[in-house]
Amino acid sequence: MNIQLIKSEADYQNALLRLDQIFDARKGSAESDEADVIALLIDEYENQYYPIEGPDPIEAIKIRMEEMQLKQVDIASAFGGKNRASEILNRKRKLTVDMIRNLTGKLNLSASLLIKDYNIGV
Predict the structure, then answer these.
(1) Contact status, residue 121 vs residue 92, Cβ threshold 8 Å
(2) Contacts 24+ apart (CB under 8 A), 101-109
(3) Distance from first CA to last CA of the chain, Å, rounded?
(4) Where are the domains of the chain?
(5) What predicted TM-score, i.e. pTM, was given to this entire model?
(6) Greatest CA span in the chain, whole angstroms?
(7) Rounded CA separation 90/47 (Å)
(8) 95: alpha, beta or left? (left if phi > 0; alpha if psi -120 to 50)
(9) CATH superfamily, domain at 57-114
(10) Each residue's pLDDT tens digit in the chain (122 positions)?
(11) Cα(98)–Cα(70) distance, rounded to whole angstroms?
(12) For a disulfide at 11, which of 6, 40, 50, 57, Cβ 3.0-4.6 Å?
């Protein structure tokens, strides 16, 4: 096992190729252990150079509503009514602190996710 840190795009591509070769190695074998270490190195490199942004607050709300099979009317009270829910979900108005408090409880979303800035009128 000759494992090196991933310091460049070439190293990254080589690590991906090696992982592809040994991905199905028998559990407990030296190649399986190598695959585990390479996967960790790849993950670290990708987190640094190819970060994936989370959804903005409105998208997060919509995703959670879908996961929980909720309709706008089901959570309208968290926004302060049906009209306000429509304005928020259609990006015509920003979330307020009270709405964020209500939504964190009702949708089990992190307040830190909901306080992120986002564009309205999109």
Answers:
(1) yes
(2) 102/77, 102/78, 103/61, 103/75, 103/78, 103/79, 106/75, 106/78, 107/61, 107/64, 107/65, 107/68, 107/75, 107/78, 108/64, 109/60, 109/61, 109/64
(3) 51
(4) 9-49, 57-114
(5) 0.63
(6) 62
(7) 32
(8) beta
(9) lambda repressor-like DNA-binding domains (1.10.260.40)
(10) 778 899 999 999 999 999 999 999 899 999 999 999 999 999 999 999 999 888 999 999 999 999 999 999 999 999 999 999 999 999 999 999 999 999 999 999 999 999 999 988 86
(11) 20
(12) 6
> 């009209």: which residue's tokens?
83
Is 65 within 8 Å of 71 (Cβ atoms)?
yes
